[in-house]
Amino acid sequence: MTAESTVASPAGKQREPEGALYVLPPGGSAAGRRVPAGRGARRPRRDSPVFLWLVDGGAALLGALVLPAAHRYPLVVAVLALAVIGLNRRAALYDTFAVPRVLDELPAVCGRIAVVWAAAAALSPLRSLPPAVLAGVVAVHCAAACAGRAAVHAGRRRALRRRPRPALVVGPVSVARRVAAALLRQPGCEVRPVGLVADGLEVLGDTDEEPGLPVLTTAQDACRALIQNGVETVLVVGAATRVEKAAVLRGLAGYGCVLWELDADPPSYGLGGCCWSDAGHLAGFSRRLLWPACARRRGSVGKRVLDVVLSGSLLVLAGPVLLGCALVLWAMDGPGVVFRQERIGRDGRPFTMLKLRTHRPASAHEAATRWSVANEQDMSRFCQFLRRTSLDELLQLWNVFRGDMSLVGPRPERPYFVARFSRAHPGYPARHRMRTGITGLAQIHGLRGDTSIEDRCRYDNAYIDNWSLWQDVCILLRTAAQFVRPTGS
């Protein structure tokens, strides 16, 4: 490590690393020269997905061999194998940025295999097969695919234990040092920190005199460290760092690095399992992928199909209930039983949200800027009942059917509060990456009405970061179980 890459401590001494880590070529041959972005960079190594492709193709072939007279259906088997690989690729099951456990992948892998075989049985000559034979073929195919993928992942984990990926940790120096120390204490971890990226003023104010990893304070030093150490992973500590270091992170991503955001201050967005299921963890730190963004595909067609089917069905079933509630409100309070209010939806686009009117604000300004009236004493008992049971929100099913909202997603808010919360909470604008919803991860954890916006924001972003159709189903089931609640949202 040359002196140019270190930062002077408050005592004026240089911090030296314990190991032989070079940010500049030995002998200072590159001293004083700027490293052009995108040129001369050593591209990080990538694990090839070819072995996973071969495993899935071989598993399809093995499953087909169980069929009676399997040689009669070579084209069907080939199309079936390609369909499985295509579905797995769409579900990011061939991404090699992390090494999952086979149990984590089991529902996704087996579900797609079952769907493909069911389609083949319905649309091909395989429809003459007895159901028991077809079930046996699917079982063999699933077992072979899971066993093969487990072997591939185990081999990758062994390789990473022998040669972990060099990584830079970006964030406040005290937190970054703590995260790096935790990673270095885990010999089986898949990454090995080789440097910290922090602000120079922050380093000068740091009183920790213990020797450790070099602290890099400029984008140029970070790029040099990346090239010389073959860095292929960047760990970003906290959402605030992602915003403050956006320019540096874009430069590192330009070299082909994989960027992960770590939650260094547990508890994280949610309770274990659900929130970070497909991002996993790194030495106990919950993580999510920041780049490449293509590794995560959001807003699938399946989500929209689920919204249309369920919202349409519920509108038909709840029609008599809605009509009855509207008649009672009209009899008690006169015309105007539908409450319309502007809310902010996906990508910051406004839309008109519908509810049954349970409170008449004094003015349009009050309606736009007053936080909540869920516990107002001047509301009638019937209106309080509508609020408590969420029956006033059933009209939002029409917003879902139209496409303004989704059944599951972050709750939409009024423009006044969106602007206010965006200034107060750095992660709040990120909630609008996905279509807003009637219920969500925050709501099933009790964050309704007058509750912490910071907590809601954290849960909402966790839901988006780890979205899956199955998670939507789970949230809808839990919402149905908690249908009666004390406050509105």
Q: What is the strand tally?
A: 11
Low-confidence parts: 1-44, 267-278, 294-298
From the alpha-carbon coordinates, what is the Rg to the nearest angstrom?
27 Å
How helix-rich are the residues, as a percent range? Answer: 40-55%
State the main characteristics.
17 helices; 11% strand; 46% helix; two-stranded antiparallel sheet; single chain; alpha/beta
Question: How is this structure best described in words?
Answer:
- It is a single chain.
- By secondary structure, the chain is an alpha/beta fold.
- It folds into 3 domains: 50-160, no CATH class; 165-295, Rossmann fold (3-Layer(aba) Sandwich); 301-481, no CATH class.
- Helices cover 46% and strands 11% of the residues.
- The protein is built from 17 helices and 11 strands.
- The strands form 3 sheets. The chain has a 7-stranded mixed beta sheet with strand order 3-2-1-4-5-7-6.
- Strand 1, helix 5 and strand 2 form a beta-alpha-beta unit.
- Helix 2 crosses helix 3 (102-123).
- The protein starts with 49 loop residues before the first helix and ends in an 8-residue tail after the last helix.
- The model is unreliable at 1-44, 267-278 and 294-298 (pLDDT under 50).
